[in-house]
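in:
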């Protein structure tokens, strides 16, 4: 091996950037062409409602007085951002999102490991785990509303041996009990989706790497944290991203189980109440725009936090 000596004072050219192969370029071009029709259709369907919401957010406008439309500029946004109710509902939404996504990530990973490792009745096991996700959210919310009912539910009678739970525990009587019931219903419904995404990540891990770690004397815990989880980083990011965005827009469970009572409103429920119940389309549209911007910011933060190069994860780099 020879070493090239660069004379002192000589300029050197910058290192060459990685050049994609012709096949990779062609695949990327084909991918853009395949996705383009769906993107165009999505923009056509969503562009008008988004523009209309942005337009209405600049006006003080109630549907009960259609002729009384007053331009207020950013006044609706100032009203919302200075109202304590907005920040309370945002805090509720963040708590629900953080708790449910964290619990679903742990339970979903355990389910994914079971579905990945099980040898007998694999199809039956996977189907059983995914059943909750196939149930309509409204139906699931009604079921959990009944389960936590103080009169007809079975939670109090089954778990009265736990501290804080008795036959007279009213799950909808205060804020934290109601929030707990909402989060349990959300976790039960959407954990299978998290497990499905994590299972896809587990399937991409080579068994040779795990066997090599075993040969090197790595324990089960070391294999989990040094081999399995690092190689699942892309799948974990996608799972957390999808579920966090979905959890931040939670509406159905709250609407069915509490209707926002006991200070359990979410940001989406507040937007619904302003637009549909009170018919204040200006304030409701401004809330919708803020919710949309918050979801975009949340997605950006999650992607930046994980710092996953998806092209490298696919083996293209």
């Amino acid at each position: 091996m020879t070493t090239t000596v660069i004379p002192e004072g000589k300029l050197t050219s910058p290192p060459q950037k990685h050049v994609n192969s012709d096949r990779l370029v062609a695949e990327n071009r084909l991918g853009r062409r395949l996705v383009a029709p769906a993107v165009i259709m999505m923009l056509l369907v969503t562009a008008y409602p988004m523009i209309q919401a942005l337009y209405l957010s600049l006006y003080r406008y109630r549907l009960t007085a259609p002729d009384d439309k007053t331009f207020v500029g950013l006044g609706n946004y100032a009203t919302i951002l200075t109202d304590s109710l907005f920040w309370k509902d945002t805090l509720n939404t963040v708590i629900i999102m953080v708790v449910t996504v964290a619990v679903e990530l742990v339970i979903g990973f355990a389910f994914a490991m079971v579905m990945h490792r099980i040898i007998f009745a694999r199809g039956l096991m996977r189907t059983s785990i995914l059943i909750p996700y196939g149930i309509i959210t409204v139906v699931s919310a009604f079921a959990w509303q009944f389960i936590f009912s103080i009169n007809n539910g079975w939670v109090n009678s089954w778990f009265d041996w736990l501290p804080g739970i008795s036959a007279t525990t009213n799950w909808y009587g205060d804020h934290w009990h109601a929030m707990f019931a909402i989060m349990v219903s959300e976790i039960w419904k959407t954990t299978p989706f998290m497990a499905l995404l994590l299972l896809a990540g587990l399937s991409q891990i080579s068994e040779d790497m795990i066997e090599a770690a075993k040969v090197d004397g790595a324990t089960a815990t070391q294999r989990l944290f040094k081999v399995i989880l690092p190689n699942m980083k892309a799948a974990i990011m996608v799972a957390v991203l999808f579920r966090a965005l979905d959890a931040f827009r939670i509406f159905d469970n709250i609407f069915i189980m509490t209707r926002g009572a006991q200070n359990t409103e979410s940001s989406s429920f507040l937007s619904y109440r302003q637009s549909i119940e009170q018919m204040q389309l200006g304030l409701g549209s401004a809330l919708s725009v803020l919710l949309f911007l918050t979801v975009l910011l949340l997605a950006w933060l999650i992607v930046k936090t994980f710092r996953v190069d998806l092209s490298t994860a696919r083996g293209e780099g």
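note: The chain has two domains: 8-76, 83-313.
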